[in-house]
Every structure is written in C-alpha cells, then in structure tokens.
Specification:
The complex is a heterodimer of chains A (109) and B (118). By secondary structure, chain A is mainly β. Chain A contains no helices and 11 strands. The N and C termini of chain B lie far apart (37 Å). Classes of the chains: A mainly beta (109), B mainly beta (118).
C-alpha cells in the first residue's frame, strides 16, 4: 500500500505563506488529497489533485504535484490564525485512504 | 450541514476490558470506515464496511476487533480485550461513494474518540 510521509510541525507568521510538504511511494496513485483537522473536529477534505495535473489552485490554496519525485505540497497564501490546524496528506487505497502523520501548522500573530 | 458524530469523546479503560466505540455516519452514506492514530504516528486504516460486511481490513484489524452496524444509524467498533498499545485516537468516517485509485471521493470524518488503556 501507499506510504505517506510528512513533517510534524510548521510555524509561520500571520500574513506569510505556508508550505506543507508530503512524499508518497505509490506511483499509481491517481488522486492525492489534503485534509485539515481543526481542534476538536474531524478531518475535513480541503482539496485534491489528479495525477495528470502539476498544479491546482483554489483561492488561497495551491497544490503542487511533482510526480517524478513523488512530492506533493500545499501552499497557503496570506496565512491567517484561523489556518492553524493539522494538515494531512493522503493517497488512495482500494477502499481506504493512506494518511501521513499530519503537519501541525501554527500561525503566529 | 450533516456530520459524522462519535461517542464518547474520551474513553478510559483497563487492560483486558472490552470497549465499544460508537459512530453515527452521515445518513445517506453507504461506506463506513475506522481509522486510528497513535500519538505522534500516522493515521492508520483499520477497516472499511459496506452493505453490512467488511470490504477491506488492515493487518491491525485482528480478531480482537469487530465492527457492526446494529441498526440503520450506528456503526460501532468493538475491541474485545484491550491492550496498552490500543491507546489511540479512533476516527470513524463515511462516504457516499467508494473511491480507490481511479475515482476521487470524499470521506467525512468524525471528531474521534480518544481511547486510553491503563
């Protein structure tokens, strides 16, 4: 199955850009996902990218996919304190998702 | 907006005891899942459930674990004889469709139950 790796922590100042990185192993993955978990809540789908795309932009979010390096990143522009959360990268299995550890993003006012 | 709910939010149990973690998936969803996350580790898939049977399970999901949909709304995870290493956050999820490698889909997650085995 898929193996997904992320760094555990990231701190940024409010207004700066955040870049959360993820690596994966299964080159056959056609969809890759970013989920967000706010305190006390469940994981919520933020965005996803199809493997025939290099980039996907959705308002302040930009997903970059480097298939050659099996590297996925999530960029949050103009990071706000409300963006403080845990961000999970995920790849698909047959009937499940493979997640990383999650990256805890802390936004410093 | 519909959401997945889980109870209790925190469960403390003694080693060897049975626990049942409860979930109410979103009402029109057909696919149900359990995941767990040991502190500092990855979110790990345990089991998926569809049409009243297990559709896939991981190596973690051994004979100590079972799932059930006892009525039209609840989806439960039972751990028969808890071990210290079962201490984790357990997430329930549901989806309207099944995904896989070729189709995008969204799993909706509950807030989790923190299980502490002492």
């Amino acid at each position: 199955g898929e193996d997904v790796e992320q760094s555990l922590f990231l701190s940024v100042r409010e207004g700066d850009s955040s870049v959360i990185n993820c690596t994966y192993t299964d080159s056959s993955s056609t969809y890759l996902y970013w989920y967000k978990q706010e305190p006390g809540a469940g994981l919520q789908l933020l965005t996803y990218i199809f493997s025939n795309m290099d980039m996907k932009q959705d308002q302040r979010l930009t997903v970059l996919l480097n298939k050659k390096d099996k590297h996925l990143s999530l960029r949050i522009a103009d990071t706000q304190t409300g963006d403080s959360a845990i961000y999970f990268c995920a790849g698909p299995g047959a009937n499940n998702l493979f997640f990383g550890t999650g990256t805890r993003l802390t936004v410093i006012p | 907006e519909p959401e997945v709910t889980q109870t209790p939010s925190h469960q403390v149990t003694q080693m060897g005891q049975e626990v049942i973690l409860r979930c109410v998936p979103i009402s029109n969803h057909l696919y149900f899942y359990w995941y767990r996350q040991i502190l500092g580790q990855k979110v790990e898939f345990l089991v998926s459930f569809y049409n009243n049977e297990i559709s896939e399970k991981s190596e973690i999901f051994d004979d100590q674990f079972s799932v059930e949909r006892p009525d039209g709304s609840n989806f439960t995870l039972k751990i028969r004889s808890t071990k210290l290493e079962d201490s984790a956050m357990y997430f329930c999820a549901s989806s309207e469709t099944s995904g896989g490698a070729d189709v995008s889909y969204e799993q909706y997650f509950g807030p989790g139950t923190r299980l502490t085995v002492t």
